[in-house]
Specification:
With 193 residues, this protein is α+β, with helices and mostly antiparallel strands. The protein is built from eight helices and five strands; from the N terminus they run H-H-H-H-H-H-H-E-H-E-E-E-E.
Length: 193
């Protein structure tokens, strides 16, 4: 038997009342916070550790305890995020139909083409380094998570962020080559290949 407890219920049970924000504002504040890094541990503390240290169990006691230890944290985070919101407002004012069209064209045509075709460039570069041949995978091989072959070795090409995903559902019978985008191109990590 499985039961669900929804966020609204958790908030009501643990905090008392859910804060309602105007439509779209939390999305914008989240974006600003990601860019400004306003709630990083260096600004607000390592919250996962602080919550463990807190000797109290109620929300009110936790909030008071946290604020007594970090009296300026909320203000520092707020100022960092507000600065970024103001920068985003300036950026939004530069967006018009032509800029959106250019962005969509770049995303749909350029980035899709490069994103789907750079696997060939990676395979070719590995083959050059190994002094051997390469080929792209067939659709049947792609369905198994294989992107291509260097000599006869099956290769799967993944972003470095793939290493850190918690539950990787797929089992790939291939050597994994990791890449990350860097300024001016991509960096390939051949690992044990």
């Amino acid at each position: 038997m499985k039961i669900k407890i929804f966020n609204q219920e958790l908030i009501k049970e643990l905090v008392g009342k859910e804060k309602k924000f105007p439509k779209y504002t939390t999305q914008l504040m989240n974006l600003a916070n990601q860019n400004a890094q306003g709630t990083r541990p260096k600004v607000v503390g390592q919250l996962s550790e602080l919550i463990k240290e807190c000797p109290y169990n109620s929300y009110e006691e936790w909030a008071a305890w946290y604020l007594s230890r970090n009296p300026e944290a909320i203000d520092k985070a707020t100022k960092k995020i507000l600065l970024m919101i103001n920068l985003l407002k300036e950026a939004i004012n530069q967006i018009d139909e032509n800029l959106i069209r250019e962005w969509v064209t770049d995303l749909v045509l350029v980035k899709t083409f490069i994103g789907l075709k750079f696997q060939k460039a990676i395979l070719k570069k590995i083959a050059e380094k190994k002094g051997t041949s390469y080929r792209l995978a067939t659709p049947e091989e792609e369905a198994k998570g294989i992107d291509g072959f260097v000599n006869n070795t099956p290769i799967s090409i993944k972003p470095t962020t793939y290493k850190f995903k918690d539950a990787l559902p797929e089992k790939i019978a291939a050597k994994i080559v990791y890449y990350q985008k860097i300024k001016g191109g991509i960096e390939i990590d051949l690992g044990d290949f």
